[in-house]
Amino acid sequence: MRVSLIFSVLKTEYYPHLKDVFDVALELGWTINLETMYKFQMLEHFPELESIGEFNDYKSFQENTDLALSVGGDGTFLKSVLFIRDSGIPVLGLNMGRLGFLANISKERIKEAFLKLKNEEYTFNERSLLKIDSEEGLFGDENFALNELTLHKKDSASMISIEVDVNNEYLNTYWADGLIISTPTGSTAYSLSCGGPIITPGCQVHIITPVAPHNLNVRPVVIPDNFPIKVSAEGRDSTYLLTLDSRSEFISHDCVLYISKADFTVKVIEFDDYTFLDTIRDKLLWGLDKRN
């Protein structure tokens, strides 16, 4: 098996755990690939990895990868999606930090996780994505997101008004600091911190969540993910901040956004003994109430 490691940053505290990754992978006869920018840094610490492979874009990644291993946190996991795209290559998230809903395999479970992979003791959790279209061609060929799209005011303290149509029907004009449109995966990210609901993976929905709405009776809305969404904004500023996961662009006030479900999914590896619901309980500290 060809395993490609993806990092956002390569920290020195990762090295002891990466040694576990390399030792187990080599013991199983698997090959390791690294992003070119990290390869030589890694060889300084692990000179025994002379035959390590490399990739520098999504095409070379897809040509040489059977399994993507995201090493870091949820931000790194989102970066891995830019390499995987519609290739169908499965991804496993190895959490090197604290809070991680996507990268949910702890660094202490590396060997156990690899052995489960070898024995095919896992399932694929298919995660849907959303995509954005616009006349400006925003984000180029990276116009998709695993978590969410966010439209937000930029510099001014003033609110903006965001008009939203759903399935070719007017929904609402939100007076707020911004608006989040998220997938079920993104329901535990920015949307959650703004009062949005937790949606289990596999639900075919999108969540529309306002950011600090001026009208207190405005609440998040859950809609079928096959409903197209049209978004436009007005305000005192001439530009607004638009984000797709961890990427951002500035857009003008006359830009119209069209959001829909992407035509591909990402295969996230899940083990039977640690599911999405286990992750939710652990990360949100549910169950610590003495009554449980």
Describe the protein in words.
It is found in: Cytoplasm. Keywords: ATP-binding, Cytoplasm, Kinase, NAD, NADP, Nucleotide-binding, Transferase. There is one protein chain. The chain has helices at residues 15-27, 36-45, 58-63, 74-84, 110-118, 190-193, 276-283; strands at 2-6, 31-35, 53-55, 67-72, 91-95, 105-106, 123-133, 144-145, 148-152, 160-166, 169-176, 178-182, 205-211, 221-224, 229-234, 239-244, 247-252, 257-270. By secondary structure, the chain is α/β, with parallel strands linked by helices. It has two domains: 2-122 and 271-283, 3-Layer(aba) Sandwich (Rossmann fold); 129-263, Tumour Suppressor Smad4 (Sandwich), CATH 2.60.200. The longest helix is centred in the N-terminal third of the chain and has 13 residues, at 15-27. It is globular. The protein starts with a strand and ends in a 9-residue tail after the last helix.
Radius of gyration: 20 Å
> How many structural domains does the protein architecture include?
2
Please, how many helices? 7
Largest sheet: spatial strand order: 3-2-1-4-5-6
Task: Report the principal-axis shape.
Answer: globular
Helix content: 10-25%
Annotated CATH homologous superfamily of the largest domain: Probable inorganic polyphosphate/atp-NAD kinase, domain 2
How far apart lie the N and C ends?
A: 43 Å
User: How many strands in all?
Assistant: 18
What order do the helices and strands come in, and which of them pair?
Blueprint: E1 2-6, H1 15-27, E2 31-35, H2 36-45, E3 53-55, H3 58-63, E4 67-72, H4 74-84, E5 91-95, E6 105-106, H5 110-118, E7 123-133, E8 144-145, E9 148-152, E10 160-166, E11 169-176, E12 178-182, H6 190-193, E13 205-211, E14 221-224, E15 229-234, E16 239-244, E17 247-252, E18 257-270, H7 276-283
Parallel strand pairs: 1-2, 1-4, 2-3, 4-5, 5-6
Antiparallel strand pairs: 7-8, 7-18, 9-12, 9-16, 10-11, 10-15, 12-13, 13-14, 15-18, 16-17
